[in-house]
Amino acid sequence: MNSAPHEFEPFIRYIRFPRYKQLAEDERIDFEFPFTALVGPNGCNKSAVLQALYGCPEGNNTGIYWFSTDVDVISEKSGRHCFIHGYWSDNANDVVEALKTRIHRKDNPDYWEPSRPIKKYGMKGMPPIDDSNMKDRTETRWKAIMKDVLYLDLKSQIGAFDKFFWHSDFQKTETINTKQDYIRHKSKYIRIIINKNLNSYTYYGKEKIRKNILLSKDACKSVSYILGQDYKSIRLIEHSFYGNQFAPTVILSRAGLQYSEAFAGSGETVIVVLVQSILSAPPKSLILLDEPETSLHPKAQHKLKEFLLDQIIKHKHQIIVSTHSPAMIESLPPKAIKVMYFKQETGVKINPISFPEEAFEVIGTTDANKLIIYVEDKLSKTIIDVCIEKFKNNLKSFIEVKYIPGGAESIIKYLVSNAAIASHKNTFFVFDGDMCWRNRKPINKECRDRISSYMVNNKIDESLIPEADNRFLDDIVKELVGCEIHLYLDGNPSTGSNRNQRIRQLRKFIKYWLNNVHFLPGMKPEGLLYDSVSDEFRHVFFKDVEKPEEVDWKEYFKSKTVDRLVKTDVNSDDILLIERQVVAKFKDDCEVFKKIRDIIDSHFENRDI
């Protein structure tokens, strides 16, 4: 996707700020790509820029978002706040500029009025009036761009349940003593609305429903894709039953369950509202999203970006987001990334072109350049962290070890699968030894033998799997990893296109698994503690161990922690504290340290620069 072609018109080509909020005077943002990310630390006016963009089209007023109060007075000592946007005019056969200025009116002290061109702002005078070019102008000024606008501040998208339960006052009555009682009472009416599919409900003379929508199949599919779930149906109700403030309730159905936002994660509510709003937007809309990654994990953020780019392609939207998310800016062209930063002497400055790496630096993350190592338990993370501290200290700023709760199977099914499909070369997974296929009993003996035939120098080579064995790929993957994996397939499973896509993804997964997934020596990391320490330390710390092969090491360290901390009730963090003391005594040449160093060295020696 290059600079916005004619099919995206009307399109805001740029916005500039002679004077606006904390921005440096005469700052300008050019929009040369239909998707633009505003990136920067907190307080650098990213939301303010979105609010100005909201106010650009004809009929819109930035003053509904930025307005003065007795506490927050908007100073105009240095002149009125204003902004100018440029767009292509067929009538003028050129890019024209429309100015909006904040003025004080009796009925509205924060009104943004369209204004005639002002020379000191570098605006051109109006050409002579011609009956053939009056569409985009009045006698004295160019009209503002005509464009539908959707503005969503995702930080403020709170479900009805959370808004009432956590953010509203509550008055007891004779029959309702708690917020829980109140919600139970009012939820009866929401159930009636759902069962009868009502679009209107009057309660004590007040309309309580603004919206009651059963999302389309496409919307359900999009929400499912972003969140990695399989929603059968989704209902969105905007109502004011909880505390008399309108807010959304979502009713989600999946895997035989039906639940509302009270039981859902906040990310589910946000994405339902966002997806439904965007899918309902007219073609060629200006869509402004303030921190759309709110409450979403990184994989969902990445998929959300894909959804937004897909909507741009399909409906020719112009989408501008403010974000702190590396996933939202990764792989964007430099012209699509605008880094905002505060400069003491001038105010907020805006870099017109920024590489993703520059943006990562500004928002305080280098994740995109780091080697990321995911592990399934805290002890494995501790072992790897200590190894890096001892042997790779000069690289520790470029390596991050992340513990993911939920078990190895969940990590494999989703994280490894997603990393494989997305070709995340900087991402590695290190599992306990019991997850290695060699250490597990065969799930399918015939398949195990088939895998052995693909080996060279005791290693599996994915390229040796013949096309004739494509029909066995599902079984091969299951034998390798020990469970089913999640694939990202489009269309009907019965079509040839879908089958070919499945084969490509399975082969890609196998190759990624063989290159980016590793296993610690032994079966469980607790056993490594005994094997890896010096003989001297072993005789002291493990003096009560006679037959190490018979020890239940988890129970052993739990008992050891109870003795050492003189506590009858210890938790996993207490146990990890004692285990770390043992890890600190590992021999430099122990097998597990050697394995970890090999993984790190292999990455930094072979990575793409």
What does this molecule look like?
- This protein is an alpha/beta fold and 609 residues long.
- It folds into four domains: 6-148 and 282-362, Rossmann fold (3-Layer(aba) Sandwich), CATH 3.40.50; 157-277, no CATH class; 368-519, no CATH class; 525-606, no CATH class.
- Strands 7-14-15-3-16-17 form a six-stranded mixed beta sheet, sandwiched between helices.
- The radius of gyration is 30 Å and the shape is globular.
- The model has no long low-confidence stretch (mean pLDDT 88).
Offer a quick outline of the entry.
It is built from 18 helices and 23 strands. It has 609 residues and is an alpha/beta fold. The mean pLDDT is 88.
How would the blueprint of this fold be written?
Layout (H helix, E strand, L loop, with lengths): L11 E8 L7 E4 L4 E5 L6 H10 L26 E8 L4 E10 L7 E5 L33 E5 L6 H8 L11 H18 L5 E2 L2 E2 L1 E6 L2 H11 L5 E7 L7 E8 L2 E4 L5 H15 L5 E5 L7 H18 L2 E6 L2 H4 L7 E7 L3 E5 L4 H7 L8 E5 L2 H14 L7 E5 L4 H14 L5 E5 L13 H8 L2 E2 L2 E2 L12 H9 L14 H21 E3 L5 H8 L2 H7 L11 H13 L6 H12 L7 H16 L3
Parallel strand pairs: 3-15, 3-16, 7-14, 14-15, 18-19, 18-20, 20-23
Antiparallel strand pairs: 1-2, 1-4, 4-5, 5-6, 8-9, 10-11, 11-12, 12-13, 16-17, 21-22
Helix pairs in contact: 4-5, 4-6, 9-17, 9-18, 10-13, 12-13, 16-17
Keywords:
single chain; 609 residues; six-stranded mixed β-sheet; five-stranded antiparallel β-sheet; 20% strand
